[in-house]
Amino acid sequence: MDTQTLTFIAVGLSFALYFGIALWSRAGSTKEFYVAGGDVSPVVNGMATAADWMSAASFISMAGLIAFKGYDASVYLMGWTGGYVMLALMLAPYLRKFGKFTVPEFIGERYYSKAARTVAVICLIVASITYVIGQMKGVGVAFSRFLEVDFTAGVMIGMTVVFFYAVLGGMKGITYTQVAQYCVLIFAYTVPAIFISLQLTDNPLPQLGLGSQMADGSGSLLQKLDKVLVDLGFSQYTAQKGSTLNLFLLTLSLMIGTAGLPHVIMRFFTVPSVKDARSSAGWTLVFIAILYTTAPAVGAMAMFNLVKTVQTDTVGVLQANLEYEQRPEWFKNWETTGLLTFEDKNGDGRIQYYNDKNPSFEAPPSWAGNELKVDRDIMVLANPEIAKLPGWVIALVAAGGLAAALSTAAGLLMAISSAISHDLVKGLIKPNISEKGELLAGRVAMGAAIVAAGVMGINPPGFAAQVVALAFGLAASSLFPAILMGIFSKRVNRQGAIAGMLTGLTATLIYIFWFKGWFFMADTAMAPNNSANWFLGISPEAFGAVGAALNFVVALTVSRLTAAPPPEVQALVEAVRVPRA
Length: 581
What we know:
mainly alpha; Sodium/glucose cotransporter; 2 strands; globular
């Protein structure tokens, strides 16, 4: 059976499973729609949270970032994992103790203000929509290659699938679908990694294979990869390339952004008690660790295999470039998607891959510039093909990539839906709306959010992990400080919280738009997206930490200059800080 047929079978069976779960677990009440009835077990919730959190950025794009950035991409591993630990220890138990459905509801009651709740809804929607755009990019990449459809058509198919099980099942359907999606994505991620690690290093554990000797006895994998890239004009794979300040701020932005993302926080409202919230946080870390400890090996091995493919002789001999007409089948397959392109600049019919932007690298006179462009989001998906693994492994990876993107997209859309239906419609516009009416409003809001995310996902402002990093920055600068101060400070009042959230969100949005040139600039080339122009060398993805600092300063200052919160609100803060049922 050919790979294409196997892929259709694997993806088709996984989609049938998701649809079946959605029909079985469809929500019949607002409590089932928002928090899955509130009786999900810690292990099940841990697995669902891991799938919700490990998005297309984790499955598809993170290893691609590691492949091309090497050491510098370790910030994504540290930031996202560290942020989850921060969320599990500092926020989740206290929010579960508060016992409401959504983050804006907590902010509205803690800061005794409908205006604060409205601002929180705006912050949530901006961050979540940006995040879900990255998932739609991942869906489009996977569909365009493995089902051989246009990228736009792939996004549309993904929208349809999510619409069915998320709108029908709500949080209840999403929870049990995410358990299935976790099983699919983790199996799809680790099986190819084991095969490739065995192939390159004779070590079946990718985590150990990363530092092991090559199977041919030519040195360790990392040492050989360092030499290969230096020979091609790139920096050493294991060397730091970015500024220390930017790496630190990006790590911090990802950490506090993770802790402030509402779709992850909402998962802790689905368990019966505070004790179960803590337990499910521990299980989530176990399930996450399986993928995150594998990702560095996947990235390094993907880059090594890519370079080895375009060299016909010993890797690193620059004159031994692969003739374009002799390119392997996987190369041809990805060319059809437009995510891998070759331009024969010097007309020699060979594929030149080297860093022509490195001034210290002297290319041969006959070369006219790097001729190969590789979208970072294809590396994990293409890795099994590059390594010539069996067709069923390639099909499995396709199903896993889609599972990762769809699981997180569903969680984000649930957060957006609940913010609109529960916080805006019921909380502010129509408090007396019936449960049936609120349920309908939630489903309509989710459908509208899916359409908006799909449209913007067709033309995203970067690759999946980059878009997701922007979303984390927005959550870090707006929601995280308000939640943290709401739990641990009795002095912060509504004026301070509103001013802080608006300051952090506005500053971060302006910085992102200025350097990304997205949405409001017709010609994105007008945007000064050049690291030389960044403020103190801080990238747009890292600016969320600066926005969060501004949020804290403004909120605390304004609170000190205005009246303290009422005594009953201060008593509420005291009660929330005691994490027991």
